[in-house]
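Render this sequence as a predicted structure.
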Amino acid sequence: MSGTSADGIDAVVAEISGAGSRLKARLVAHVVQSFNPALRTRILRASLHGTVAELCELNFELGEEFAKAALSVIRKAKLSPTEIDGIGSHGQTVHHLPNAKFPSTLQIGEPAVIADRTGITTVADFRVRDMAAGGQGAPLVPFVDWALFTDQSRPRILQNIGGIANLTFLPPRAELKNVRAFDTGPGNMVIDAVVNHFSHGQKAYDRNGEWAARGKVSHPLLAEMLRHPFLKKKPPKTTGREEFGERFVKPTLAHAKRLKLIPEDIVATVTTLTAKSIADSYKRFVWPKLRNGIKGLQVILAGGGAKNVTLRKMLQNELAGSEIMTVQDLGLLAETKEALAFAILAHETLAGRPGNVPKATGAKHPVVLGKIVPGGK
């Protein structure tokens, strides 16, 4: 898995058994393979301004990177490629247009390269089949959230904070048809861009929320950002770098300059944007579905943003009365959750079972996700 932040690849080996609500997954090994700064810059540039030639070559180059990550985590698990049943590769999203005349999405990281280098059957390009069925192609993690994290007595929200933030709402004893999920808006994307700008490329993110902790929130700047139409749009909805990347960050920085804000204040303000947009999504679209209010609600964080101490404090203030924890509190490292999710989705695909949640994506019906590239040399 490589997310919209494009900072590198998380790869896991997982042992998976069962199906549906009886599905079980055990994490065997995990590696992080960071992209070098030059490659990350090329990915981010190509996502908005790439030529056909650049995307064509980058597709195969990233296929090599994903294959290396797969082989690395297999070695860490002390296994051989012949002992692996399949690889699930989400790929690197470079463009996502769910509301275009022809809704479409593009993930690169050529699966034929992965299958050839590893000899392992590879499932990839998960999002396009859901889009073909009328969905937004995202979020796809809700099936996994439902299978692994549904509680018998308490409502839960699984809140992933990657480049983009997304939630999965699980009522107690939820059936798959009861699951709701959607993107809430920016996660780390705007924070990362602002930190990268003011550090002159030396820092890719705000480690532990340290910059934000030193700053003061600018309410005029925050109010302007919260006017973004996506934040009030009703689900199903997804977003990406097209809405909250460069075209959002540039005018935000220009507005901050007019307000004469120091960098720490800007980072504090865009971090607050993430916290408030998440909390506002709950109040608009989740709270009305809770029978007993937010009493007993567990909010379970995953993704890189779960490590941002300042962001977590802001969320706690916004969501007073709910219990905020991380997937690590449930025995799973935050950075492994999405890679594990696509291992599970690949498992479902190879078994011929649907992996999307139509109520979450807007698809007309359940579909088997992905394209299968056979392994073997």
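Summary. The first helix runs from residue 37 to 49. The chain has 14 helices and twelve strands.
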